Amino acid sequence: MSNITTKQAIDIFLLSCKVEGKSYGTIECYTDKLKGFLWYATNYQWSDDIKLITTDHLRQFLAYLRETPHRFNSTCPRAMKPCNSTTVQKYYRALSALYNWLINEEIVSISPLAKIKVPKAEKKVVKALSNNEVNQLLGILGNTFDGIRNKAIILVLIDCGLRLGELLNIKVGDIKMDQQLMKVDGKTGERVVRYGLTTAKALKQYLKLRSNVNGHNESFWLTKKGISLKDSSVETLFIKLRNKTGIHVHPHLLRHTFATCTRIQFLCGIRSR
Fold this sequence. Notes:
- The chain has helices spanning 6-19, 24-43, 55-67, 85-104, 131-139, 145-160, 164-168, 197-210, 231-245, 251-260, 262-267, and strands at 175-176, 181-186, 189-194.
- By secondary structure, the chain is mainly alpha-helical.
- It folds into two domains: 6-104, DNA polymerase, domain 1, CATH 1.10.150; 131-267, Orthogonal Bundle (hpI Integrase, Chain A).
- A three-stranded antiparallel sheet has the order 1-2-3.
- Strand 1 (175-176) and strand 2 (181-186) form a beta hairpin.
- Helix 1 runs antiparallel to helix 2 and helix 6 crosses helix 10.
- The radius of gyration is 21 Å and the shape is globular.
- The termini are far apart.
């Protein structure tokens, strides 16, 4: 490929990731981060030829992420403040994967990232949710389609310790309701997890509503219009939960709660069989 635009390179790279069998979460992360990179390259009038992107270009982009209070002209809440160090590192790693692929494909001979050190991620102490906080979150969801689905999502995240990508990658056939087992596929590969009685009841309630929405979509988690649920929709769910309860909840916090807070498993009855 003598001439290849940045957009073409990103599109082919993401296609290659799918062919190589990279996890849903990895591909979603690369897609999101490289979308922002392409927006910046286009709006700051870089050359269309990806071979002409330099180390200084990439430094400017990484600085933009860290310093700009409103990024990408987006109305998404997460774009309304500068990126933290962990998020900047994710952009760096997505770019690194892209350029490693470009080198392997002999499109470029050297990565302009080579002279840029990996941004250090912040070390944060993640606290588990208390029993009262879990009950508070579940108590405000209501009995609408979204409320019943979202309750099932929260219980699955707490009970099974799933990553967001693993959750959204679940298909209808991956859940064995009679055995309370769930097959998940994520960054660590495929595995089977067990869930408890409370989660099983929430899943059954959701499945009753789901059966009336779209029987042809294999994705387990759907909107009430029958469309596969996206990570942006789950992010919006957690933003609403934070605003309504004052609890700074997010998917990784529920995963951390699964790993560390055994008292919730018993007090809430989530792990009851």
